[in-house]
Design brief:
Layout: H1 2-9, H2 29-39, E1 48-55, E2 58-65, E3 74-80, E4 85-92, E5 99-105, H3 106-109, E6 114-120, E7 131-133
Antiparallel strand pairs: 1-2, 2-5, 3-4, 3-6, 6-7
Length: about 140
């Protein structure tokens, strides 16, 4: 449902995220122990780079995981930066050095600044935009 919402919000364009890992399979025994140990990783495990640039289609954002594989999924959230209103979000899980990128079309931007915040579900991170753009 989130994907359908984002596709509609972004003018019918799909957001390309490369390889996204979301597991809906049941977890058993040793896997639970392994996930518990990973989930206890220190906050230093959350190292990423988020950059944005304006192009002819709108705003291009790139998210790069500079740390190890994320132990669980997180949410990539897209906002209007002028009033912090949420445009849409998508769940993702990044491997070490994995990159994802997407374009926010000009018709969605509506001459307003756009911002991205990555919200990991596996550790508490303060709300602060990771990148923001205002494209002419």
């Amino acid at each position: 449902m989130v994907e359908r919402f984002l596709r509609k919000a972004l003018g019918g364009a799909a957001i390309a995220f490369g390889a996204i890992v979301v597991s809906h399979q049941p977890v058993h025994g040793a896997e639970i122990l392994a996930q518990t140990e990973i989930a206890a990783a220190p906050p230093a495990a959350m190292r990423m780079e988020v950059v944005g640039a304006c192009n002819k289609d709108g705003a291009l954002f790139k998210v790069v995981n500079r740390g190890p594989k994320w132990p669980r999924t997180g949410n990539l959230k897209l906002y209007y930066a002028d009033d912090n209103s949420l445009i849409g979000q998508r769940r993702l899980r990044l491997a070490g050095n994995q990159r994802v990128s997407f374009v926010v079309r000009k018709n969605v931007m509506s001459n307003r600044p756009i911002a991205v915040w990555v919200d990991p579900e596996w550790y508490n991170r303060s709300f602060r935009f990771d990148a923001a753009l205002e494209c002419p």
